[in-house]
Amino acid sequence: MQLTQCFKVSYFWLILGGVWYPRTLDNTRMLYAVNIYRVFATIFINVGMLAIQFIYFFTVAGKDLDKTVDATALFTFVGYLFKVITVIKNRQRINKLLDIIDNETDKDDLLRNMAANINFISGFYNGWACLTAIMWNLIPFTKATLTLPLYYPDLPPSSPWFVRWYIYQATMIIINAVAQTSADHLFGGLMAFAATQLKLLQHKLEAIGAKTDSTVDIDAQREQEDYEEMVSCVEYHLKIIWFVDELTDIFGGAAFGQFLLAAPLMCISMFIVMTSSDVSEIVTRSLYFGCLSGQLFIYCFCGNLIKTQSDLVATAAYNSHWTTTSMRTQKALHLLVIRGQRTISVVAGNLFELSLVTFGALLKSSYSFLAVLSKHRDE
C-alpha cells in the first residue's frame, strides 16, 4: 500500500470541488470531460459563492454591525480561493512531492505510523468541517423569518426561487468547507512526512559505524560501507531540504493568506458566540472557530515538527559511532553536522516561520481584535 493513500479522502473532496483530478486521467480522452467539470465547479463553487458574499458584504457593511459580522464569511471564500489557485497551479509539483514519499525505499515503521495518523486526522478534520457546514445550513430555520444560509439574495420563503437558491447554497457550502480542509490536510500531511523523514535520517546517522569493532583495525570493506552510508545520509538530507523548500515555495503564499484572514475571522466567530442568544448559531460558530483554529494549528504544529527534527540532525550525527570510522567518513559527517546546525523550516510569505510560537501569537492577535470589537459594540 502506498503511503500517500492516507490522502484519499482529501483527494475525493478536492476532485469534487474541481481542484484536483487523478493522474490516471492524464493524456486520456476523459481529461476533456474532467476539465469541463472543473470549469463548471470553479464557476459555481468558487466564483459564484464569492460573488454572493461580496455583494452581501458591501450591501450591509457599515450599516448594521450584526449583519456586517455575518457577512465576514466572504473572507472564508477568499482564503479558499487562494488555496484553489495554489493547488491547480502547482498540481504537477505536488504530484512530484507525493511520488517522492511513495518511492521512499526505506518504508520504516515511522513512515507507516505517520501515514496512519494522517489518515485518522483526515477523517476527523474533514468530518468536523462537514458538520460545521451542515449546522451553518440549519441556522436559517432557527430565525423568526426563514432566510438563505448566506442571507443573499434577500428572497421571501414563498418565492419559487427560494428552495433552489437554498439547495445551491447549502450544497456549495458543504463542498467548499470540506474541500478547504482537504487542501489544509494535504499541505499539513506533506509537512508531517518531511518531519518523519528527518527522524528517519537521525536513525540512519546514529547507526553509522555501529558494526565496526573499535578494538581492531578498520576493515576496508566495512570502511567503504560506512562511507557509502554516510554519503547516502548526506544525499538524503539534501533531498529533505529540497522537499521543505519546495513546500515553502508552493504553499507559502496560501499559508500567508490564511494567516492574514484567520485572526479577524476567529475574533468574529468568538464575538458571535459571546453575544448571540441563538443556541444553534452559538454551536455553529463554535464549530467554525474550531475549523479555523484547526487549520492554523495543523500548519503550525507540522511546521514546528520540521523545525525540531531538523535541529536534532546534527546531534544524531555526533551521537553516531564516528570514532570507529575512517577519516573520510568523519569528514563527510563533519560537513553534515555543519549543515545540520542550520534549522530547516517552512516560511509563510517569506515573513514568518510556521511554528507553535506563531500560532500563539495569532491567538493573541485574535483576542486583541475581539477586545476592540466588544468595546465598539458597547459604545
What does this structure look like?
This protein has 379 residues and is mainly α. It has helices at residues 8-16, 30-60, 65-70, 73-89, 91-102, 109-138, 162-206, 220-275, 279-311, 313-318, 327-340, 356-378, and strands at residues 347-348, 352-353. Strands 1-2 form a two-stranded antiparallel sheet. It is elongated.
In short:
The chain is mostly helical.
Shape: elongated
Helical stretch tally: 12
Strand content is under 5%
What is the count of β-strands? 2
* Secondary-structure element pattern, one letter each: HHHHHHHHHHHEEH
Determine the N-to-C terminus distance: 60 Å
Largest sheet: 2 strands, antiparallel
What's the mean pLDDT score? 83
Rg calc: 25 Å
Structural class: mainly alpha
The parts where pLDDT drops under 50 for at least 5 residues are none
The side-by-side strand order for the widest beta sheet comes to 1-2
Query: How much helix, percentage-wise, in residues?
Result: over 70%
What attributes characterize this protein structure?
379 residues, two-stranded antiparallel sheet, 12 helices
List the SSEs and their pairings.
Layout: H1 8-16, H2 30-60, H3 65-70, H4 73-89, H5 91-102, H6 109-138, H7 162-206, H8 220-275, H9 279-311, H10 313-318, H11 327-340, E1 347-348, E2 352-353, H12 356-378
Antiparallel strand pairs: 1-2
Helix pairs in contact: 1-7, 2-4, 2-7, 4-8, 6-7, 6-9, 7-8, 7-9, 8-9, 8-11, 8-12, 9-12
